[in-house]
Amino acid sequence: IASGKGGVGKTTLAVNLAAAISEMGKRVTLIDGDLGLANADLLCGVRATRNIGDVLDGRCALHDAIADTPYGFRVLPGASGLARLAALGEREARVIVGRFAAMDTMSDIVLIDCGAGIGNIVHAFMLAADRSLIVTTPDPMAVTDAYALIKSLASRRCPTTGGRPGFSLVVNQAFDDEEAHSVCCRVSAVTKKFLGIELAGGCWVLEDDQIRAEGRHCRPFVVSAPRSDATGCVRRVAQSVLREFEMLPESPEGVGAMGRFASILRLITGAGKGAKIAETVA
Length: 282
Prior knowledge:
Structural class: alpha/beta
Number of strands: 8
Number of domains: 1
Distance between the termini: 23 Å
Largest sheet: 4 strands, parallel
Radius of gyration: 18 Å
Strand content: 5-15%
CATH superfamily: P-loop containing nucleotide triphosphate hydrolases
Strand order of the largest sheet: 1-6-7-8
CATH topology: Rossmann fold
């Protein structure tokens, strides 16, 4: 779950999507991969004592850092230490490979709340993912930045599978269905014409005054406001994700999305400090 710019409600969507998919009977783990503002655990109402930085530093095992939420899913809290991934040596990277790859057997679905914008770690997550949800608002600047994020990966392939990343657009905070549909159509037309990329449909979440207070109370609105318009929208996004989930071919052991991410990370770091993803993918 990524965005071209901050302030589009990406983390709120990620938390509520995790809760909605969990309600549908799937084992869900949400990873807070935001380097700049790691706060997904707070929105889940969890007071985390350990985070992903502790895992990277070897202070705890991965399963000890993952926290249960009151809403049926689990969260791996983020930390600014995640930025150190790009500077790891090859030996350190091998350790991280095993730790991240283990998540593929712990969950049915892993949702990753990426940091806003374009960067090596964001690209690594998106290249490894079965599907990238690009979050925008109807604001023209947000739409432009969402397109730029898609464009930054348009010609790249996952170095472990050779596959191209798949994208879906989610228009958040839309005034009504007509506005959201218009944004989806415009972005879809531009990405197809100039990038040769077919977006996998389009979803949206309507602006809803009823749910504003829920974020302040640190709880997902899909739980506390189940009949709100925004909740209905998020559940439709969840259903779309699950439809794609059911259509995915079964991955060979050890090459799930998190295993792919770990392998991409090793390629970045193993090529030498400061190596770029652009140098490791077609």
